[in-house]
Backbone:
């Protein structure tokens, strides 16, 4: 399974911010949309990632308030990224290695979407459920050998 498969199911809604936006405005957007991250875009390029983790760290550092802090001061300037062709096993490994919960998907320098750890976990569970159903159907339809007697005759 590839990242493109997850984005096809998830849909293409993207929420972004700029480095110049205030952290308070970015947090307000995250709260309104009930999302855990914003991709930081400048001049059409991904320049960072802002997650609830960075927001909380910045607020604590600022004595419990947003103050005039900008997104630039709080964002992660080096987020993990992947492409539409990246395999889900690789995305899962990268996210676990870096403790990342969100990963922008970039294709030819263009933002295509964001994959969350939830999306990855859901894809794994859905894939396993499908595989389990297929295996159960295969076992249920297992062909009996010519020598096998019907179960009623075996008793």
Residues:
């Amino acid at each position: 399974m590839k990242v493109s498969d997850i984005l096809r199911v998830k849909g293409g809604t993207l929420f972004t911010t700029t480095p110049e936006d205030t952290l308070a405005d970015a947090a307000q957007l995250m709260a309104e949309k009930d999302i855990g991250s914003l991709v930081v875009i400048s001049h059409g390029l991904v320049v960072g990632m802002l997650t609830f983790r960075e927001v909380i760290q910045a607020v604590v550092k600022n004595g419990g308030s947003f103050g005039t802090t900008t997104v630039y001061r709080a964002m992660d300037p080096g987020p993990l990224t992947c492409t539409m062709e990246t395999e889900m096993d690789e995305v899962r490994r990268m996210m676990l290695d870096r403790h990342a919960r969100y990963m922008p998907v970039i294709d030819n320098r263009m933002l295509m979407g964001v994959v969350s750890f939830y999306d990855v976990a859901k894809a794994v569970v859905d894939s396993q459920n499908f595989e389990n159903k297929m295996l159960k159907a295969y076992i249920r339809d297992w062909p009996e050998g010519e020598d096998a007697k019907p179960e009623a005759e075996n008793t």
Summary: The helical segments are 3-10, 23-33, 52-61, 71-74, 88-98, 117-140, 151-154. The mean pLDDT is 88. The longest strand covers residues 45-51.
